[in-house]
Amino acid sequence: MSNERLAEAGISVDIDGVVATLTLDRPEVRNAQHPRMWAAMADVLESLDASVRIVVVRGAGGTFSAGLDLALLDPAKRAEEGSLVATLSKSDQEIIDTIGEYQRPFALLSDPRFISIAVVEGHAIGAGFQLALCCDLRIVAEDARLCMKEPALGLVPDLVGTKPLVEAVGYARALEICATARFVTGVEAGELGIAQTVVPAADLEAALTASIGALTAHSQGAVQGTKALLQQAPLRTLDEQRLAERTAQVARFRELAVAFGLA
Ligand code: CAA
């Protein structure tokens, strides 16, 4: 995709070796999100080269994302592209299909081909919090502020964030965080298991570099296969998981046989 189209969609993409960095790039509106941005993000994620092992998601200008662009909820701007107000009059099925399209990039972030890392500083609100939750890992500044704002706007979180939130903190805490739409600090996000790494904002780059180094130190195929096994583990019985483990190991054995000169 051309840099021009990416800029129009409010994102920038940098590919450096095995690391792709996707930056929400609308700092003047705190990286507020809109459907054109989501479509471009999905296209970028779908077209990544197989050599990409890490996808970093971050925001420009010292903040992650203020969530949905509030202009889309403004009845006076209902003629604008992507207006949610214009969606209100659609049929039930059209609404479901439209949101299904919006969810694409959020779901793609859990693709076993790569490990996605959200670097969260400043605010991650609503769609911003959900975007961070959809990444495999979160590196969060101590003073970051995360909030599932949707219920406060009369909405439910619908951008793939509810499942990873429940998986991270459990049903009761997830309900408390969402129903109150309160802010969770970076420090609390670490205590709750939402963030895997919590550091002072000044140390985010060093923490990211260290994480990327550690996450790419080992065989790409082994890491991809392990990620897929771990993702599916909660959905399977023990016997099903045992079968999945030994089946996945076949490809590893074949690769090792080649490495040992036996095949
Ligand atoms: N949409 C559009 N513009 C936004 C925005 C948003 N979500 N958030 C901030 N902006 C704009 C502001 O209007 C302001 O523009 P001007 O300079 O033209 O006045 C500019 O960004 C800077 O904003 P602030 O001065 O408020 O910046 P701040 O650093 O003091 O505060 C903030 C940052 C806490 C994120 C605050 O801007 C804020 O609360 N924003 C709204 C957050 C929000 O309610 N988002 C919707 C979440 S719900 C959701 O995402 C729904 C969904 O998925 C279904």
Major sheet summary line: 6 strands, mixed
Count up the helices. 12
Order of helices and strands: HEEHEHHHEEHEEHHEHEHHH
What is the CATH level 1 assignment of the largest domain? Alpha Beta
Structural class: alpha/beta
Q: Number of DSSP strands?
A: 9
Strand order of the largest sheet: 1-2-3-4-6-9
CATH superfamily placement of the largest domain = 2-enoyl-CoA Hydratase, Chain A, domain 1
Low-confidence stretches: none
Overall morphology:
globular
**Helical proportion, percent range:** 40-55%
> Which cofactors or ions or other ligands sit in this model?
acetoacetyl-coenzyme A
Mean pLDDT: 97
What is Rg?
A: 19 Å
The first-to-last residue Cα distance is 40 Å
CATH topology of the largest domain: 2-enoyl-CoA Hydratase, Chain A, domain 1
Would you identify the CATH architecture of the largest domain? Alpha-Beta Complex
DSSP strand (E) fraction? Answer: 15-25%
Number of domains: 2
